[in-house]
Every structure is written in structure tokens, then in C-alpha cells.
Specification:
It is a single chain. This protein is an alpha/beta fold. It has 2 domains: 111 residues, D-Maltodextrin-Binding Protein, domain 2 (3-Layer(aba) Sandwich); 112 residues, 3-Layer(aba) Sandwich (D-Maltodextrin-Binding Protein, domain 2), CATH 3.40.190.10. Helices cover 42% and strands 26% of the residues. The protein contains 10 helices and 9 strands. α7 crosses α8. The relative contact order is 0.24.
């Protein structure tokens, strides 16, 4: 039988590597699908079958309340922060504090974020800083973390340059794949958004022991070292 994992995309690098390790060591086949947390929530709420779920704290709280996970198997996987990405040949903007970040956005030729959890936060942050209306059509919303980095790379380092905001783990994964982008810096601490991710066995799993074992693998001390290398702490 195949162990099915539904996972948030921001932790893709570490989850994929650890599932491969689990396959080798257990002899069990693991199939992983990565998606945005809002979509993952809808799919689980609709009754989609899975053996292991990896999602943010808020989503996991919902799953626990609705009986979708085995509470005893839920454990911390790691935390992800939002970073600023620019074209690899563009000057690194000063985003050391909120004021500098605001100036950099106003000078950018485009501002890119996605429509996932971190993108929803960025959209609300832009409005909070009074930038939504000022930036107007320069704001580009894409459908994934990887698409943020791709769009910034495609727009090039031209006048002002494009700035993207996304999960640092996704930025680093795309850079490691050769995308023409670089991480400028994390968001300033005062406006940083930290997403906390958990793994748990699904209550509906037909392989509860294997699902619990894989959840333990994803949240072990050894796993934390692997996630740290992908930008998840």
C-alpha cells in the first residue's frame, strides 16, 4: 500500500527528502502532494483521504477540532519566515526596518506575492502600510511560492527592479534550482510573519502505524537538521 502525504508547499524540500529516507528505511512507498495551505484545508474538510498531513498551526487546529488527525501524533516540524527576493543582478534593497522596506517597495518596478497564507499576510501588510493604493497595478499576485521567484527573475533587474515576498524556504529552493534571483533579506522583525508547521497522522488512515511512524520521522531531531538547510528552523 502507498502512504499518501498532503503537505504545505513551503516545507517541500525537507518533506520530500525525509519521505525518500522513510521509503528506503521502511520499504513502504510514499506519495507526496504539495499544495497551498488554503487549498489543503478545503480538500481535507471535503473528506479527501490521506495518511499524513503537514500544515500550519491554524490548519492543524481545525483538523484536530474536526477529528481529521490523531492528536497524539501531532508534532512541530519547523518555522518559516518571509523574505524579500530580487533579481540576481539587481542591487540589494535596504529593507532593514519598516521605513526602509516601505521606501524600497515604492521604488520597485513591481511587487510580487502569491495568494497563499504568506501572500494573504503580505496583502494585508501592504494595506496596513498604506501602500496598496499607491502601488496599484505594480502589485502582481501569482498562484504559488515558486511563481513569485520565477516572476521576479523574468521581470529582470531593470529600473527599480522587481521585489517579491515569499517564504524563505521556497526562495532558497528556487535559487538552488538555478533561478535568476537572490534573497535580499528577511522581512524586518517588526513586520515579520512566522508560519509554524506541524505534521500528524490522519485519523482516516488505513495504515495508522505507518502514518504515525512517518509523522515521527518528519518531526524528529534529525529532521530538524534537514529542514534547517532549506530555510525552516
Amino acid at each position: 500500500m502507498v502512504i499518501k502525504v498532503l503537505s504545505a508547499g513551503a516545507v517541500k524540500g525537507g518533506v520530500a527528502e525525509l519521505c525518500a529516507v522513510f521509503e528506503r528505511e521502511s520499504g513502504s512507498k510514499v506519495e507526496v502532494e504539495f499544495t497551498q495551505v488554503p487549498r489543503l484545508r478545503k480538500r481535507v474538510a471535503a473528506g479527501e483521504a490521506a495518511d499524513v498531513l503537514v500544515a500550519t498551526a491554524g490548519a492543524m487546529d481545525e483538523f484536530a477540532a474536526s477529528g481529521k488527525i490523531v492528536p497524539a501524533t501531532r508534532a512541530l516540524l519547523g518555522r518559516s519566515r518571509v523574505g524579500v527576493v530580487v533579481h540576481k543582478d539587481a542591487p540589494v534593497p535596504d529593507v532593514s526596518d519598516t521605513e526602509a522596506f516601505t521606501r524600497a517597495l515604492l521604488a520597485a518596478s513591481a511587487v510580487v506575492h502569491n495568494d497563499a497564507s504568506s501572500g494573504v499576510y503580505i496583502a494585508s501588510l501592504l494595506d496596513k502600510l498604506g501602500l496598496g493604493a499607491l502601488l496599484g497595478s505594480r502589485i502582481i499576485v501569482v498562484n504559488s511560492g515558486a511563481a513569485i521567484i520565477t516572476k521576479v527573475a523574468d521581470l529582470g533587474p531593470g529600473a527599480g527592479g522587481a521585489m517579491g515576498m515569499g517564504q524563505i524556504s521556497e526562495i532558497m529552493a528556487m535559487i538552488n534550482k538555478g533561478c535568476a534571483a537572490k534573497l535580499a533579506a528577511p522581512l524586518p522583525d517588526a513586520i515579520q510573519n512566522v508560519s509554524t508547521y506541524y505534521a500528524a497522522a490522519a485519523a482516516s488512515s488505513a495504515m495508522p502505524d505507518a502514518a504515525a511512524a512517518l509523522a515521527r520521522t518528519l518531526t524528529s531531531d534529525a529532521a530538524k537538521k534537514i529542514f534547517a538547510a532549506t530555510g525552516i528552523d
